[in-house]
Design brief:
By secondary structure, the chain is α+β, with helices and mostly antiparallel strands. Helix content is 43%, strand content 12%. It has twelve helices and eleven strands. It has a six-stranded mixed β-sheet, sandwiched between helices. A three-stranded antiparallel β-sheet has the order 7-9-10. The chain has a two-stranded antiparallel ribbon with strand order 8-11.
Amino acid sequence: MSISTPYFCNSQLTLGCTVDVLSPERDEQILRIASELCPHLFAHNGEEEKKETEVSFEVKPLLGGLSNELFILSRKDLSTSPVLIRINPDEGDSDDGVVNRDVENHVAAWLAQQGIAPVYYGRFENGRIEEFYDNVAPLSSSTMDLYAPQIATIMAKFHSLQAPSEVLPKPSTRPAMIYQTLDRWMEQAVLLEAKMPSHNMELLKRLEHEWKWLNDGDWLQKTTTTTNVNEDAQTQALKFIRQIVVTHMDCQSLNFLKDQEKNTIRVIDFEYAGWNPRAVDIANTFCEYCDMNNISADFEKEYPSDAQQDAYLIPYIRQADPRLAEQMEADPKGFGAEFLATLRQEIGRFTLVSHLGWAVWSVIKSKEDSAIDFDYIKYAHHRMDGYQFAKNKFFSSQ
């Protein structure tokens, strides 16, 4: 059965329809869009001319999304696979939104063509429809370390991608996209100052202060080229971990799905992807070993130990740079130990960027009109608790 439409894997074409998640006609709106983007769902005996009113469907909310509102659309007769509807709560058609939805869709469609992301059925004015992965379960913060080798290998492969500039533009004003994004998010957060309750003003001032403090440190601005086998372990480690690569930037546990039958892991949700130091993506991953999603992290106990970090880093290096892995294995107590210790320290420093970024993001999200039930301000405060933990641990001498 053909599923091809002009919208299929085509992020340049947008269906002129929207979904109002608060409307009593929400499900009908979703069905109308699906009939255009996913005509195969409405087929009867292999014929796709069937109308949406002639087939019985179920629209079910999918909980857990903090950036988008998610719905599963499935036929009640289960004759076809369900699809996932993503509804964007913001107006992010350009760089003025929290997420640039044009870039997000270009990346999603391109990754789908690479076989990395879910099948991309098409976009509409405030969302898109994509493949729904069935028979999978998200990881939790407490199980991240159990699947560290698999996650590390997946992310090393992801970091090796060469995304075309028309899909994922390189940063224009800063060495890394996350710095450019944080500049923009901080500007947006400051504009919300007049709308902020007085008891949240201290949080906003702290975010501004800490972003200035990070920018004043020259370590944030350093980027590197390829490593040289004749250089010492620390130099090679810093060059390796600071290389600018295609990063995911939202490596939380809910974005890693375990296939229940194959016992394999796949990654989803690429809306924050960008060109950044590989360190910041790994830092984000290590932050998510802590129970961030439930806003109940114990950073002292849950931030991964040296052994847990190495259980991720060693398979990551083997996949990302076999030459470096061989050099480490040839001298595990000397070069290898120093190389890993340098990585752990540098990644730890980059956890400040992760915590601060999500704190600023949370402040902006708290002022969006959205049906998502989540305490963004509480989350922002909790991320800053993590930020302070990391600042004390990795910048103790400053």
